[in-house]
Amino acid sequence: MGGATSNSFSVSVQTKDFDIAAETKVLTASNTQIGAVASFIGLVRGSRETVRSLELEHYPGMTERSLEAILFEAKERWPLDGARIVHRVGALAPGDQIVLVLTASRNREASLEATAFIMDYLKTRAPFWKKEDGPEGSTWVDARESDDAAADRWDP
Amino acid sequence: MGGATSNSFSVSVQTKDFDIAAETKVLTASNTQIGAVASFIGLVRGSRETVRSLELEHYPGMTERSLEAILFEAKERWPLDGARIVHRVGALAPGDQIVLVLTASRNREASLEATAFIMDYLKTRAPFWKKEDGPEGSTWVDARESDDAAADRWDP
Amino acid sequence: MNVLYFAWMRERIGRASDEVNPTGLNTARDLVEHLKTQGQEYEMAFEKMTSVRVAIDQEMSTLDSSIAGAQEVAFFPPVTGG
Amino acid sequence: MNVLYFAWMRERIGRASDEVNPTGLNTARDLVEHLKTQGQEYEMAFEKMTSVRVAIDQEMSTLDSSIAGAQEVAFFPPVTGG
């Protein structure tokens, strides 16, 4: 009771949707020293006219390892009591949830900064690739330089 | 469809609990240009031994006005498609949810920064007061200088 | 003019509000000085002015702000929500 | 040594993996040069090397990293998750 256990840090790569309320409850249930929970949800953008569907490919095995490494790095940098990444793969539609990052801490700034850090690293280091199926056929989404810049700001 | 409406920005001051999943769904339902939803939840810290309960007092009328002013300010500073504050009042127990901030944007950094900003301003500008009921009786919680410093960082 | 008190200021004063005649009172500070003449409970509540915040018609203000025409003035300690 | 391809690299090559004899190959770049001799589809996939990322035994690496003793080398475009 009250202490953070190592399984307070976990990742899931899954086709099924997630429920942020249920995930938050699991993350905070065993530790009433947590005062702050920050989170980020990424959604599939675009109307049904511009993006019919999105296909998310990943590198099984390496994906989980890289996400766990990112959580480990976040834990080294901020006083976190727990953190969780859920990333969906497979076919998704506009408005669907893609990714959830949750962090729990005694400290408000720590949870919000760690959430930004985890997303920035995930965007540039975790092996996922998006393919959009639109009115002009399928195209692989290009990586964005702004994501590299966002990740670089955390370097010492 | 697709456009943000002005009621995408709203506040609630309430005794009852909130569900972050339901609140997120409402915020993002009408707008599939939203790619990013950031959030913060504040929880009552402390074990049942140190804090038996927490009483949250507020200034009805001014509370809602000040929270709305904070959302308006956030909207001026970041490209937000929507934002929501839910703050509970009355009697709460350790582990209970106190406050929810949700922001929706096309841009990841905008949603996370706006969430941090809203919390920092809420902590220093919204008329709420916490009273803790512990083993040595009731005490009003002191304001923290670190919260003033956090709010000051957003000044030009 | 309606004057409101919150949190430990309300508890020290022993009431949540007062109706005050604003004649001759220019600033929130003048109002404080007036209230302190109304009894020991007010003197206690306004003892440490660095811990007193003021809102005039529900807008955060300072002790030197004018209360001319104000309908509601509130005194309270630094806020601790969130 | 198992060599994997993802996203448009997999599509251009037309397969998800190859079994390669690593004899004489020191770095990931040597492996790329070897693969490019295996057909036009490989030449096309490795045409623009600034868009090629490599992981050696599931760790992000560079083209000049050693592949000595590696069991799995993967090539893919810059990642676009999240």
Tell me what the structure shows.
The complex is a heterotetramer, with two copies of chain A (156 residues) and two copies of chain C (82 residues). With 156 residues, chain A is of the alpha+beta class. Chain A is 33% helix and 33% strand. Chain A has helices at residues 20-28, 62-77, 108-125, 145-152; strands at residues 9-14, 36-43, 53-58, 80-88, 90-92, 97-105, 128-134, 137-140. In chain A, helix 2 runs antiparallel to helix 3 (108-125) and helix 3 packs across helix 4. The longest helix of chain A has 18 residues, at 108-125. The radius of gyration of chain A is 16 Å and the shape is globular. Residues 1-6 of chain A have low confidence and may be disordered. Chain C starts with a strand and ends in a 6-residue tail after the last strand. In chain C, strand 3 (53-56) and strand 4 (59-61) form a beta hairpin. In chain C, strands 2-1-5-3-4 form a five-stranded mixed beta sheet. Chain C contains three helices and five strands; from the N terminus they run E-H-E-H-H-E-E-E. The model of chain C has no long low-confidence stretch (mean pLDDT 97). The longest helix of chain C is centred in the middle third of the chain and has 9 residues, at 28-36. With 82 residues, chain C is an alpha+beta fold. The relative contact order of chain C is 0.28. Chain C has helices at 7-13, 28-36, 40-45, and strands at residues 2-5, 17-19, 53-56, 59-61, 72-76. Chains in contact: A-B, A-D, B-C. At the A-B interface, helix 1, strand 2 and helix 3 of A face helix 1, strand 2 and helix 3 of B. Strand 2 (36-43) of chain A pairs antiparallel with strand 2 (36-43) of chain B, so a sheet runs across the interface.
